[in-house]
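Slide 14.
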Amino acid sequence: MDLEERRKRLKVSHQDLATEAGLHVSTVHSVLTGGHDPRNSTFNKISGALSRLERAAMRALVQGMHPLTTAEEAAFEAVKDVLGASVAAAGEDAP
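Slide 15: predicted structure.
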């Protein structure tokens, strides 16, 4: 899964991801939309921010904690939606 797919799955805006990654929003937008080939350090910052958001969302869900940032809140809701759909689908398969 590429970076943009991960961002969309988490329902995090380019602005919130840029804040989490410590980058300018135009840089994040350009990288995620294929505007330019990023340096390894830029790619790692974006990927790391997405990983942190994914972990924060899962931790909040498991521990019943409230996410701390706007980006974490969006990721939390996205993970909750995905897990809820998975649980519902598993229930439909049950005898």
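Speaker note: The CA atoms of residues 27 and 40 lie 13 Å apart.
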